[in-house]
# Entry
Amino acid sequence: MISNLPERISGLGELAYNLWWSWHPEARMLFKMLNRQAWKECTHNPVKMLRELPQDILEDAAKDPEYLHHYDVVLAKFHREIYPRSSWFSENIADPGDFPIAYFSAEYGLHHSLPFYAGGLGFLAGDHLKECSDLGVPLVAVGFMYPEGYVRQKIRADGWQEDVDEVLDRDATHIVRVLDKDGKQIVVQVPFIEPPIYVAVWKLQVGRIQLYLMDTDIEINDPWNRVISARLYIGDMEQRLRQEIVLGIGGSEVLSTLGIKHSVLHLNEGHPAFAILERIRKRVEGGMSFEEASREVKATTVFTTHTPVPAGHDVFPFHLMDKYFGHYYPLLGLNREEFLELGIHPSEPAAGFNMTAFALRMSEYRNAVSKRHGEVTRRMWQPLWPERKEEDVPIDYITNGVHIPTWIEPKMQLLFNRYFDPDWLDDHDNPVNWQLIEDIPDEELWQVHYRLKTKLINFIRNRVRQRWVEDRVSTVNIIAGGTLLEPSALTIGFARRFAEYKRAYLIFQDIERLKRIVNNRWMPVQIVFAGKAHPADDAGKRILQQVFNHAHDPDFGGRIAFVENYDEQLAQYMTHGVDVWLNNPRPPLEASGTSGMKASLNGVPHLSILDGWWIEGFNGKNGWAFEGTGDDGKDAEQIYNLLEKEIVPTYYRVDERGVPHDWVRIMKEAIKSTSARFSARRMVKEYAEKFYKKALKGA
# Structure
């Protein structure tokens, strides 16, 4: 913990170790007020900063009346929200009781100072936890530490992505060791695995929610086992299976060791689905038959699938299942064939044990993450219910949402505070509140947005400068990295994982036409790209290389940029600061997508193919949409037409004060039409009302 804090401001220690500060600007300001440069250099990690600050700075703060006033107000709010008398959940769903809902996920995107996430799935999980804290949902979460799981991206002068492992300093973060009564870190043995695998248990406090993280990198483990939790989504199939055994079965054992009995299980994707087996095994051990136990477990299990790509679902060969579960089959009262049948996809019975098929069979409550994804998912998995028509397959949908307090830019929030009702943020899933956006003068909204765009471009330039100073990179990297961007030009943002189906290359289909668009003397356009290819995805790296090479092509005049090392912090700057958010995946492979929701929340209109959430979100006035054919040439043509005929002229049509009123009208409509509907608050309330309430009764 932090031992050097003066008694008067000792509450900073409790606050630093609870990520509540990350979605409350006034709490972040409490740390920033101590020393802005230290806050920046410590990558917004308050634990690291408080430990490294000179003692005299802390002593001065403890005597500063202005600082102490701010401190007292923030700490009072913190304690009110963390220890409330009641909550939305207790008043509308059920008494939280003593048995929480256990939420299992392979990754959690919570803050850039905690780099153990890969992308959208993790940030969805992180936003889910934060919103459950805000609403008082009785949740406990389980995942992995991934001390080597974060890949820092560096781009060579030839445009090829280099993957640099960034090792997490566990003791310099907000994560704490979970200790036993003797003060030693709790280490749990994963049941029924030989040779044995052990996990050290850590805890991260996310508001009211406890997130337990497992770490296999401990001396008691064999070398082969120490790296199980080293990194996210291991490529080796056997090691991947071992990782998912540790996540599901080991995670269940961690909760049991800690004395946490859960009433409902919520699986975020198929990776942790083996947790279902442990719930069944314990009931069988207590005297139930497999049929009775599985029926009881199924009635209290929620499964969310995010993946419309068949190759994205884990399928393990039968011989590996035999190797690791051969001794486990009889513990469930099953023989080998009966067990393996639980995970077989009827269309591919010889392919192996399919984790999604298993989770779908063994869960009563199943959902996709958008209306369109629900249609795709029911079609994909209809063979599991051969007696039903596709539209009757029992897979619901709950469209993803984003955690508003996390993703709204503080300056934008301050603007809303001046014109909205005082308690608007507490009721932000009410669409009526957002109608007040019309009361904001166009000029004020535009000025805030323009400042945020300037802030983004300055951030990009500083990153390039830092890379040049530290690594003496080529001037090619300096040009491609965004040095020549300018705030006055219409700025399009594209930030995605560089997988082929995301089609980052699409806008380059007609190079000459794109050059004419971006180099228009009177109406210039610039495009900022960011994103990482998976370390094992060479095809994705080649796409990234193509984009990078265009970025330093003199014929584009410095108006194409590729910004290295996409992370949560850069995502914040981009979703707040670009003018248009571009999304053009190959349909129907976008399950939902949340980055466009974050952009719309901050007045950045969406330009997207009609897939994922945008089918539900587009109303004809809040951005631009085009029908995806899947044909690259035809889809690119639609983007060019929209840019030339609608987007660019509208942006540059300004009054004598430089305010583009028609554009601001679209910005307001984007905010007004999407913020409540695509909030994590609406999403979590749907989970609670559709699934948690019924599952808790089943428990």
Notes: Residues 512 and 555 are 10 Å apart (CA to CA).
